[in-house]
From TrEMBL:
Enzyme Commission no: 4.1.1.44
Keyword match Lyase: yes
SUPFAM superfamilies in alphabetical order: AhpD-like (SSF69118)
GO MF term list: 4-carboxymuconolactone decarboxylase activity; peroxiredoxin activity
Domain of life: Bacteria
Name by which UniProt lists this protein: 4-carboxymuconolactone decarboxylase
UniProt keyword list: Lyase
Record-annotated Carboxymuconolactone decarboxylase-like domain positions: 35-116
Pfam families to which the protein is assigned, alphabetical: CMD
Signal peptide stretch: none
Tagged with keyword Transmembrane helix: no
Alphabetized InterPro entries for the sequence: 4CMD/NDH-1_regulator, AhpD-like, CMD-like, Decarb_PcaC
Length: 128
């Protein structure tokens, strides 16, 4: 395992949590293993591992980009990750407000709906 992959796995676990990464690793097959290696090395071992900006800022950027490009499938995962990155609910709202102005209100509105539902689920889980 390369240093970038090992570091990527460490960063991925710190941001997304062990349970999420363990599920993803358990679901990995020979078919998608090259893709999983690519994102672990590239996204997590290079981009997220960079010390150029904070994990909080990366969370905000990632959520804004996902919403702006209409890639809503990963918004809940990255909202849950804010518990580990330090991005607050206010930070997420600010990011989605930027999306509304620069990429469109419908996308920001849908992302905000997902975030609200995800925060409610997170709060419910901590009440248990």
């Amino acid at each position: 395992m390369s240093d970038r992959i090992a570091n990527g796995m460490k960063v991925r676990r710190s941001v997304l949590g062990d349970a999420h990464v363990d599920r993803a690793e358990a679901a990995k097959t020979p078919f998608d293993e090259p893709f999983q290696t690519l994102i672990t090395e590239g996204a997590w071992g290079t981009v997220w591992a960079s010390d150029g900006i904070s994990l909080r800022e990366r969370s905000m950027l990632t959520l804004a980009l996902l919403a702006a490009t209409g890639n809503f499938e990963e918004i809940a995962m990255h909202v849950r990750a804010t518990a580990n990155t330090g991005a607050s609910k206010r930070d997420v709202l600010e990011a989605f407000q930027h999306v509304a102005i620069y990429a469109g209100v419908p996308r920001a509105n849908h992302a905000l709906k997902i975030a609200k539902q995800t925060y409610a689920e997170m709060e419910e889980a901590t009440d248990d």
